């Protein structure tokens, strides 16, 4: 019996080491294209993340929200009923309802349109309300129509009954799958469970919108479920935003690469749901994350402002962006749109530069004319195209012709040049003679000084008593001129 217990202990330890080894190996996984795959887990709730901007603390999310914040304005929203089937995906970190491209509406924020992409489930909540986390938090991710900017609406959910402690079965279920979390696998269709029963609609605080995640059994890791929807059983998303105030702040994604490209609108009051709805989603999230949940630690607010906005139900703009026709059939892409804008800015700058050069040229012309007027005020103004020019080179409007001035005879330039040449030659000759005289005098002084020093050294006899050793160093005086 003792031998069996010992073998069982060894087997459990070996399995744990294998799981840890696989998890460590997956942290350096790269795709074939050379782009790093962000493998991570929630064992430390993001404190160990270094990918992308995760180590930054400039404008990271989530944060602890204050009790009150100043009102900064409104935003408008409008979501269409979800009447088409959609995928509910478990990627090993969260449950995500993929709604991209279905035309379910979005938000107009600061006069810019943001399309709804997906809705993600987090447990516990990522944000905290004056230090308190909630059982669930939904993230409605929206993308700007023309840029990479994101607008994320966060809605906390709770039930009347507090959640019980997580069941111990999570540790057994996830022991074999924890090492595979984060691997690049294509989600597969989850098998339909014959024993699953969705939370009943008659329960207290039943939330019809949240039921979209529970219509089918939540899929396991790297699996997906197709959620049925139709005109008769549509899901409404507007209740997630209706009649609520939202905290507004500049933040980031809450999972690697933690890009700081998100603006957050976090609902101030918490939505209610039935006990079973909250418990089912909470258990599904914890089961997929080795009983750690999928919430990140709170980030410092730093100098960021937290304000309040109120949502208003309003029809979206008829055209989120103007369609610009291009040569040929394809329409303009986002990159081409930005390139065209930069080209127009460059043309504006070039035009301004040309105008500046023209103005500078005119100023130089006026300055030259003013200089000429100052040197020779009696000169006749220029006559351009038969028009009389006034002072400063400006056309004279109705001005009478100037009086005839006596002009001095032209200066004989050849004689002036010869005189200047002779003067320069005489000055150069004088300078050369003076320099030669100074050089000769200085040379005589230096020669006499060197001879005296050499004679003194010979007489004193330095260098180990050899008086003739320095005789050869005497510099002969220059020959007499």
Topology:
Elements: H1 2-26, E1 64-65, E2 71-79, E3 86-90, E4 95-98, E5 105-109, E6 112-122, E7 128-129, E8 136-144, E9 150-158, H2 169-174, E10 188-189, E11 223-227, E12 245-251, E13 262-267, E14 271-272, H3 275-288, E15 307-313, H4 334-375, E16 383-384, E17 387-388, H5 413-460
Parallel strand pairs: 1-7, 2-15, 9-13, 9-14, 10-11
Antiparallel strand pairs: 2-5, 3-4, 3-11, 4-6, 5-6, 6-8, 8-9, 12-13, 12-15, 16-17
How much of the polypeptide forms β-strand, as a percent range?
15-25%
Order of helices and strands: HEEEEEEEEEHEEEEEHEHEEH
Mean pLDDT: 77
Q: From the helix content, strand content and strand pairing, which structural class follows?
A: alpha/beta
CATH topology-level fold name of the largest domain:
Carbonic Anhydrase II
Q: Biggest β-sheet: count, sense, barrel?
A: 8 strands, mixed, barrel
Order the strands across the largest sheet as they lie in space: 2-5-6-8-9-13-12-15
Give the number of helices. 5
Name of the CATH superfamily of the largest domain: Alpha carbonic anhydrase
What is the general shape? elongated
CATH architecture of the largest domain: Roll
């Amino acid at each position: 019996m003792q031998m069996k217990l010992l073998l069982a202990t060894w087997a459990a330890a070996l399995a744990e080491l294998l799981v840890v080894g696989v998890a460590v190996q997956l942290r350096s996984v790269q795709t074939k294209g050379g782009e790093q795959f962000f493998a991570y887990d929630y064992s430390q709730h993001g404190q160990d993340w270094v990918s992308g901007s995760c180590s930054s603390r400039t404008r990271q999310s989530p944060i602890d929200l204050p009790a009150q914040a100043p009102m900064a304005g409104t935003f408008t929203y409008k979501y269409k009923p979800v009447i088409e089937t959609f995928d509910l995906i478990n990627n090993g970190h969260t449950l995500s309802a993929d709604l991209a491209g279905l035309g379910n509406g979005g938000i107009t924020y600061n006069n810019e349109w943001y399309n709804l992409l997906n809705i993600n489930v987090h447990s516990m909540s990522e944000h905290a309300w004056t230090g308190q986390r909630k059982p669930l938090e939904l993230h409605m991710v929206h993308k700007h129509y023309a840029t990479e900017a994101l607008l994320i609406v966060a809605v906390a959910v709770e039930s009347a009954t507090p959640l019980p402690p997580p069941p111990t079965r999570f540790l057994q279920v996830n022991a074999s799958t924890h090492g595979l979390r984060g691997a690049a696998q294509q989600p597969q269709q989850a098998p339909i469970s014959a024993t699953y029963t969705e939370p009943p609609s008659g329960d207290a605080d039943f939330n019809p919108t949240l039921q979209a995640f529970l219509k089918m059994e939540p899929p396991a890791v790297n699996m997906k479920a197709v959620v049925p929807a139709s005109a008769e059983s549509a899901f409404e998303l507007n209740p997630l935003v209706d009649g609520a105030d939202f905290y507004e702040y500049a933040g980031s994604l809450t999972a690697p690469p933690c890009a700081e490209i998100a603006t957050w609108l976090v609902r101030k009051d918490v939505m209610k749901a039935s006990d079973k709805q909250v418990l089912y989603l909470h258990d599904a999230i914890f089961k997929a994350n080795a009983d750690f949940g999928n919430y990140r630690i709170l980030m410092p607010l730093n100098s960021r402002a937290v304000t309040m906005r109120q949502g208003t139900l309003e029809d979206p703009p008829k055209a989120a962006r103007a369609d610009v026709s291009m040569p040929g059939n394809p329409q303009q892409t986002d990159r081409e749109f930005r390139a065209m804008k930069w080209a127009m800015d460059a043309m504006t700058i070039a035009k301004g530069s040309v105008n500046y050069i023209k103005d500078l040229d005119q100023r130089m012309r006026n300055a030259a004319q003013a200089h000429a007027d100052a040197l020779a005020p009696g000169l006749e103004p220029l006559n351009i195209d038969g028009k009389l020019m006034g002072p400063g080179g400006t056309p004279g409007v109705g001005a009478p012709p100037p009086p005839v001035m006596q002009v001095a005879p032209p200066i004989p330039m050849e004689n002036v040049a010869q005189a200047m040449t002779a003067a320069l030659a005489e000055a150069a000759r004088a300078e050369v003679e003076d320099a030669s005289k100074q050089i000769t005098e200085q040379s005589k002084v230096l020669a006499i000084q060197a001879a005296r020093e050499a004679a003194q050294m010979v007489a004193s006899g330095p260098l180990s008593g050899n008086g003739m050793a320095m005789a050869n160093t005497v510099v002969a005086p220059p020959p007499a001129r």
